[in-house]
Structure formats: structure tokens, C-alpha cells
Amino acid sequence: MNYQQMAVPPRSAHLWRYTPWPRIHPTKVKELPEASEITFTVEHAEAEPFTRDGQSDDIARVFLQDIGGSSMRLTIHGKGETVHIHARASGHIAVGHLDLVIKGEVTVLVHLTGEAGWCGLHLTGSLQKNAQVGYGLINELDGNSNLLRCEDWMVARDASLDTATLSVGGFRCKSDLRATLSGQGASVRQAITAHGQGARHDDHHVEIHHLTSHTNSDLIVNSALADSSHFIATGLLTIAEKANRSDAGQVFRNLLLSEKARAEAIPELEVLADDVSAAHGAASAPIDPTQLHYLMSRGLSPDESESMVVNGFLIDAFSNLKNKTLTEQMRTRLTVHLECELKR
Question: Is 270 exposed, middle or buried (0-12, 13-18, 19+ CB in 10 A)?
Fold first, then answer.
């Protein structure tokens, strides 16, 4: 099925509840506009073009497939190195597809920048048996850009995936992130941090599917929201009938820095196995005034005090990751972002 044959999903659908499809589509909803290519620049790895396969019933993935754009595949035999991918989105509409096939141990960092009015990024990743992978995406698009981001990860037996997102760019962002644990001993640890300012709208939908026994997943989502920004996190965690001895958890935390800021946190569990451990939690609150008072009593300004609290709160989202290189890189980029915002 191609995009123009598909029905527009209703707002009652879990995925499109807060950011309906017409709101993230770059033009009129039934149009398939022309797109320029996201430019990928890769350090420490060799890339090759690939032919995308369009086997999906999700409207966002089919749309990105049909609209075209650039396509790049990295086949990585990791030996502990770090691979940097710079993704530059320019023009009115820019689209890119990135496919990762990974063996061994590696850290992959994708830095998304550019001033495109609308950006679409679809990443697919396949971890082979025993792979140990850290993956981070830093969204620093122009503040007027809109972003549609889809990710699909497949994690094989005894493979481990740490993923981290730093979302500080773009005006309206919709992310649909999915990971499937297909082999025994597979594990996924995910961390998402978002900083909302102005009227920024940032919507993350995360799905983690445990298909077999002895699999583990952990998701932490932290957002700090100022002005009239809006952050949404919806999580769907499924444990199949035969996935006994699985351990899964997800936590959503929102720090409200303004009375006009809004946050939605909606974890969902679908557990069909009996012998599992599954938990979820969500909380939203303003900054504790005693923390600000303590910092200001030691000579910091109110803005500096708030920035320090926000930095510590957002960095804590990475506490579940085991990949030290990934954790350090994401913490550094977050600190640089907050320091730049403080100087404005």
C-alpha cells in the first residue's frame, strides 16, 4: 500500500492522540510533496546506499518511504570505537533514511542539525548476536523546524542496546521509537531528555516489545519545560505470552518551570506472560523552591540556580545507561546547550 491509499489515523489512536497526523504532515494531508535529501557525513565508518523496503502499515513510515530522500547503510563490525554521523537537513522539506547493521561493540552518535522547514528521519537498526551497542541522537534543529522521526530496532540473542535522545531543537517534533527484543538475553536501556522553551511541542511515543524469555528493558524519560512548551511521552510495553522471566520498567518525570508549561505522561503495559517483573511510574512537579534558595544562598543568580537544577535533573535520565562513552557524550552536549541558553 502506498501513502495516498492510506486512511488518516484517528486521534483516538494511542500514537496520534496528542499530535494528530495532519498536524505533523508538511503540506496538505493527502499530498506527497517533493523532498530534498538529508546530508549524512560519517566519521570512522564506511557508508553505502541501500534500497529501502516498504513493508509497514504505519502511516509515518510509509510516508517517509514514498517521499524519497537520502538512504545510507552502515555495516559495522565494532571493536569499541565511536562512530559519529552528522545529519544536515536543509531546504523546505528534507528526508533521510539510515540503516545500521551492527556486530561487536560500538557507540554511534547521530547529530541532527539544519534549518529545514520540515525534516523526516527514519532509522532502522539490527543488532546481531552478542552485539554491545550505544546509540545517541542529538536533535539540534533550527527552532522553527518541524521533525518527524521514526526508529525501528531489532535486538538479537544476548545483544545489548543503550539508546539516548537529547531533544532540544525544532518547534514541533513527533518521535515514534520502537525496539523489539527477539532473542533470549537481549536487553534495551533507553534514556530520553527534552528541554522545552517558548511554544515548543515535543511528542515521544516509545514501544518496547519482549518476544521471548529472559529479556530486559528499562526506559527513563525526563523533560524540563519552560514558558508555554508542551511535552508528551507515551510508552507501550508489551511482554508476549512466552516471554517469561522478562524484566521491564518505564519511568516518566517532568519538571515544570512555568505555570503555562504542560506535560503528559502515559505509560501502558500489555503483559501476557505470568512469570515477569514489570513496573511503570510517572510524575510532574515544579522545581523545589528550597533547592533554588540553597543555590542562591551560595552566590548563584536565580537563572544560574535554575539552570543547575535543570541540568542535574535532565542528566539523571542517563543514569540507567551502561555505555560510558554514550553517557559522557550526551551529558556534555546537554551541558553545552544549557550554558548557551543561559547566556542568551
Answer: exposed
Torsion from C-alpha of 177, 183, 184, 188, nearest 10 degrees: -20
136 HSE (CA, 13 A, CB side): 29
Residue 165 burial by CB count (10 A; 0-12/13-18/19+): exposed, middle or buried? buried
Beta strands 247-256; 39-43: pairing state: unpaired
Residue of 158, 159, 84, 172 whose CA lies nearest to 120:
172
Reported as type and span, the H/E element at residue 78 is strand 70-89
Q: How far is CA 296 from the centre of its chain?
A: 34
CA 116 to chain centre: 19
Q: Which residue shows C-alpha cell 506535560? A: 263
Q: How far apart are CA 289 and CA 17, in angstroms?
A: 33
Q: In this structure, are residues 131 and 162 in contact, taking their beta carbons and an 8 Å threshold? A: no
Which tens digit of pLDDT belongs to each residue from 208-249?
A: 999 999 999 999 999 999 999 999 999 899 999 999 999 999
pLDDT digits (tens, 9 = 90+) for 140-188: 999 999 999 999 999 999 999 999 999 999 999 999 999 999 999 999 9
d(CA 221, CA 267): 11
Q: Nearest CA to 40 among 6, 106, 77, 90?
A: 90
Q: Note the pTM of the prediction, 2 decimals.
A: 0.94
Cβ within 8 Å of residue 259, ≥6 positions away: none
Of residues 327, 336, 337, the one with CA closest to residue 109? 327
DSSP 3: G
Q: Which residues pair with 68 in a beta bridge?
A: none
Distance CA 250, CA 241 (A): 20
Place of cell 508538511: 26
**In this structure, what C-alpha cell is assigned to residue 229?**
512548551
Q: Where are the chain's structural domains? A: 3-286
C-alpha 308/C-alpha 302 separation (Å) is 10
Average pLDDT score over residue span 263-270? 91
